[in-house]
Amino acid sequence: MALFRIGNAVGVIGGETAIEPMPFEQAGQSFPGSAFYYLAPDAAAGQPLADGAHWEGDSFAGPAARALRAGGTALDRTRALTCLTQAIYYEAASEPDAGQRAVAQVVLNRVAHPAYPKTVCGVVYQGAERTTGCQFTFTCDGALARVPNRLFWQRAETVARAALAGFVYAPVGLSTHYHTIAVHPYWADSLSYVGTIGAHRFYRFGGPAGAPATFNVAAYRGGEPVAAPPPRAAGLTSPDAALDPLAIERAYAQGYNAAQAAALAPVNTVPMSRIGGFGAPPANHPAPAYAPALQARGGDALYTAQTLPEGQGVRPEYAGSGQWIARPGS
């Protein structure tokens, strides 16, 4: 013999079940809708936090980027695809799809930002001509000497092809920087944190440098350089100071503040009498130079009114116009 229980019903397998009616099921104890008041919501079970879950404060991605589509010649599109695939492969080959799309979006966000080159390959290989200071580590640490794994390369190429066809990965917004969770660069505490995707933390510019209006995807016109690192320049052993993200952010803020101050500055007005405005006497302009045939016919006199009626030319019957016919009370 075995017992089973469902709610307040207790039964015996193979036997009859005795069910105790609930109050709203008893005659005289219910009204339409009374069952609602006997509902007992299950206590919410606490869900364990996922591994690595944490609160990062300001982690708002902000507005998404606008779609950038590869243009230019077929060679430009091929080079752009190669460079973006390289960036995705060497920076995020083992990342999930979201991590690879985020890296691709950062590259395209830089292409649209005035502070960076206007080509995909230019962005990817920026600073690679220096012994230190390359913007993407793989372009100057020897990683390119490794032969890519075909399967992972094709996966990265699929993500790159979609990004260059206009796909926008909104979770990173207008991010222009990222780093792995294993390091903490000097600029990480100054830029605006967007979020962590895979093994990378993403950041965007604050202030005018990161405003949506600053990014212009229409500035991309192709003209892609060779999809390879530029030759190393002799004597360039330090990073380019112009690529410091904090310097870029400050420069945009200073320019914005200067423009605001100029817009609010008082304007030196010129009296209307000096520019021939309302109430000013007519300016004397020299007569134009007419052709000899017009000069023989009278020149400027042909275009000057000579027969306009004046005070002494008023007809007698209209001489009293505007005067009282008879003054009131007279």
UniProtKB/TrEMBL annotation:
Protein name listed in UniProt: Cell wall hydrolase
Database matches in InterPro entries: Cell_wall_hydrolase_SleB, SleB_dom1
Mitochondrion is among the record's keywords: no
A GO molecular-function descriptor: hydrolase activity
Domain Cell wall hydrolase SleB, first and last residues per copy: 94-203
Membrane-spanning parts: none
Organism of this sequence: Novosphingobium aerophilum
Pfam name, any one: Hydrolase_2
Keywords per UniProt: Hydrolase
Keyword Transport set for record: no
Classification of source organism: Bacteria, Pseudomonadati, Pseudomonadota, Alphaproteobacteria, Sphingomonadales
Domain of life: Bacteria
